[in-house]
């Protein structure tokens, strides 16, 4: 029987999102699940999200005005996203039955935490016909930081020197070769700085390896001028990048993002180019957070490193997150379309929005300053609420834990050419004014 795709498309466009999805896939077999329909409509499809933390919550917030519903899967009942999403399936990230239910209720699956299980998602996607974006193969690459680095290096993306380590001797040899300190990283399972341990000297090698507990890798410590990131989005046939953000970390945890980054034009251009090269390697649509180092100065050959060590102002890849990223939260107020709206558009195969800057913006994380786990509430938010251009984002986490990301505050300038230094100072004051209560 011959099928006339055009007629079929029109007929099914009048029916439900689920039927539309299967037809889209049928029409585009072998074509990366691309939807060939020319008309889009709202109320639209449903996105199933593995993970229901703050990223899922902000994704649901951004999807709602588009008429797109979000169902999340998360093991914590009443997870942050549950308060704004259509529904929550309470299940572990690798729970087959839970993910099957999610896939059956959604037109596309995505994830907002790397602890999502790529094998389960791939299998269920095959069974149910619900596509997953970014692709499970991408998650597999990203899951293991060593595999991630190797693949990117092979693709010509500039990375700091790195290697696998089996034992403390390997760490000590790396210190000999790269110079101290080095950065020891858990190959899998780490996020929000967990699993990254700077090793200052050979004497610390043993203890550092024990704290990582599991397969590890080591990287040369980059002497950076600044840490920057590019939030990039991969659509059907397009890649868009947001203006680069300058990131400040303490204890391996992101504290603030400043946009635009105070880098030169040449460095900015290079960062965008590297981000595009990274996205060429990644499979599947969606938003990616690309963390980069802008190097400070050339290393001397006397430290044992080779001649092709980084030069001043060079860009080196640090890590990639195949999802919206903490350093892209500024886009909610600071860009024409937020990273969350872009992610929704991208995974649905919809046209992407503009990534243009609205105005210089600083975002500052609200990290729980508690010594032990306790129920959380934020007090003294008055100053944020009273400041023009300031926006509070509270994630709705019931429990505060030391340095847990509980929310963030964003401050945007009124003038497109405003210098970011003053904004940064003011944002720091706003963050200092709030207090955690219980
Ligand atoms: N997240 C995922 N990878 C890195 C981060 N920060 C977000 C996701 C996830 C949440 O952090 O939204 O669901 C988990 O936060 P927590 O505080 O429960 O560990």
Quick structural summary:
This protein has 14 helices and 21 strands. By secondary structure, the chain is an alpha+beta fold.
Describe this entry's structure for a reader.
Helix 4 crosses helix 5 (118-128) and helix 5 packs antiparallel against helix 6 (136-143). By secondary structure, this protein is α+β, with helices and mostly antiparallel strands. The protein has helices at residues 5-13, 17-27, 54-63, 96-105, 118-128, 136-143, 145-154, 168-178, 205-212, 265-281, 331-334, 339-347, 382-386, 420-433, and strands at residues 46-50, 69-74, 87-90, 108-111, 162-165, 182-186, 196-199, 216-220, 224-234, 239-241, 245-250, 253-259, 286-295, 315-321, 361-367, 374-375, 377-379, 390-394, 399-400, 405-412, 435-437. The longest helix is centred in the middle third of the chain and has 17 residues, at 265-281. The protein folds into three domains: 7-132, Rossmann fold (3-Layer(aba) Sandwich), CATH 3.40.50.20; 161-220, ATP-grasp fold, A domain (Dna Ligase, domain 1); 224-432, D-amino Acid Aminotransferase, Chain A, domain 1 (2-Layer Sandwich). Bound molecules: 5-aminoimidazole ribonucleotide.
């Amino acid at each position: 029987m011959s099928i006339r795709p055009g007629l079929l498309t029109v007929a099914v466009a009048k029916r439900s999102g689920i039927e539309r999805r299967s037809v889209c896939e049928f029409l585009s077999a072998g074509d990366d699940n691309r939807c060939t329909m020319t008309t889009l409509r709202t109320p639209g499809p449903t996105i199933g999200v593995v993970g229901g933390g703050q990223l899922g919550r902000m994704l649901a917030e951004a999807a709602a005005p588009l008429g797109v519903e979000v169902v999340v899967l998360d093991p914590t009942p009443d997870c942050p996203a549950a308060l704004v999403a259509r529904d929550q399936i309470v299940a572990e990230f690798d729970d087959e039955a839970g993910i099957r239910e999610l896939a059956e209720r959604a037109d596309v699956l995505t994830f907002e935490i790397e602890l999502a299980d790529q094998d389960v998602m791939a299998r269920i996607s095959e069974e149910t016909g619900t596509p997953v974006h970014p692709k499970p193969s991408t998650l597999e690459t990203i899951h293991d930081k060593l595999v991630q680095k190797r693949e990117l290096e092979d693709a010509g993306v500039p990375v700091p020197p790195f290697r696998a380590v089996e034992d403390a001797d390997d760490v000590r040899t790396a210190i000999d070769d790269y110079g101290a300190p080095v950065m020891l990283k858990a190959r899998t399972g780490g996020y929000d700085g967990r699993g990254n341990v700077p090793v200052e000297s050979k004497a610390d090698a043993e203890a550092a390896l024990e704290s990582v507990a599991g397969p590890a890798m080591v990287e040369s410590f980059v002497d950076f001028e600044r840490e920057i990131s590019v939030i990039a989005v991969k659509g059907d046939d397009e890649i868009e990048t947001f203006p680069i953000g300058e990131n400040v970390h303490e204890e391996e945890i992101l504290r603030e993002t400043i946009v635009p980054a105070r880098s030169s034009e040449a460095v900015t251009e290079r960062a965008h180019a590297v981000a595009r090269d990274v996205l060429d390697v990644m499979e599947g649509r969606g938003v990616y957070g690309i963390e980069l180092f802008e190097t400070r100065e050339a290393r001397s050959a006397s430290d044992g490193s080779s001649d092709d060590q980084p030069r001043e102002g060079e860009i080196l890849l640090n890590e990639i997150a195949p999802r919206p990223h903490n350093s892209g939260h500024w886009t909610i107020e600071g860009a024409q379309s937020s990273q969350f709206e872009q992610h929704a558009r991208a995974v649905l195969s919809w046209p992407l929005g503009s990534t243009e800057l609205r105005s210089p913006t600083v975002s500052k994380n609200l990290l729980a300053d508690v010594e032990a786990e306790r129920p959380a509430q934020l007090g003294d938010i008055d100053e944020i609420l009273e400041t023009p251009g300031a926006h509070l984002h509270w994630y709705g986490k019931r429990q505060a834990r030391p340095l847990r990301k509980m929310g963030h505050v964003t401050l945007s300038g009124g003038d497109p050419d405003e210098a970011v230094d003053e904004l940064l100072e003011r944002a720091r004051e706003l963050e200092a004014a709030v207090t955690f209560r219980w």
